[in-house]
Amino acid sequence: VEAVHLIADGKAPRIPQPKEGATYEGIQKKENAEISWDQPAEALHNWIRGHDKVPGAWATIDGQAVTFYGSSLLDSSVPAGQELTIKGASKPGLVTKNGLVVFGNDGKMVLVRNLQFEDGRMIPASKYFSSDETTAVELTEEEKKMAEDIR
């Protein structure tokens, strides 16, 4: 009650807030979101999810920064997949049908569902080794005639 009266009377003490630590802006920088691989799987998961969507937790794969999105802890046996070398990771990741499996220093696993490349392309992590080639559609003679009739 006393504090309310001091404010109402304009006599409440004013203590300026220090500028140091007054913002969370420094946390949101991309360079601060690089994944440190020397930690348990739960910490990796928390780091990736904590930076999902902005600024995005990232690691270097094949010389480029790749951002990881949509992680979950994986509590099963090691799935079959194609190995993917990740800079700084003690064990290669595995590209599986469900996504990219990465390992914490405790041997436990984290599943990452989506990856984004430096050029902005985002892909399901399970498609990392899939080629970007498109196949041409070949029409039969009957289909070619139908296409001509439609034109």
Kindly estimate the percentage of residues that lie in beta strands according to DSSP. 25-35%
Termini separation: 83 Å
Over the alpha carbons, how many angstroms does the gyration radius reach? 25 Å
**Elements, N to C (H/E):** HHEEEEEEEH
**Count of DSSP H/I helices:** 3
Strand segment count = 7
The CATH C-level name of the domain at 30-131 is Alpha Beta
Instruction: Tell me roughly what share of residues is in helical segments.
Output: 10-25%
The CATH superfamily of the domain at 30-131 bears the name Formyl transferase, C-terminal domain
What fold name goes in the CATH topology slot of the domain at 30-131? Methionyl-tRNA Fmet Formyltransferase, Chain A, domain 2
Q: Please state the overall shape, judged from the principal axes of the Cα atoms.
A: extended
The low-confidence runs, each spanning 5 or more residues with pLDDT under 50, are none
Largest sheet: 7 strands, antiparallel
Domain Formyl transferase C-terminal: 29-131
Organism: Climacteris rufus (rufous treecreeper)
Pfam families: Formyl_trans_C
GO molecular function, one term: catalytic activity
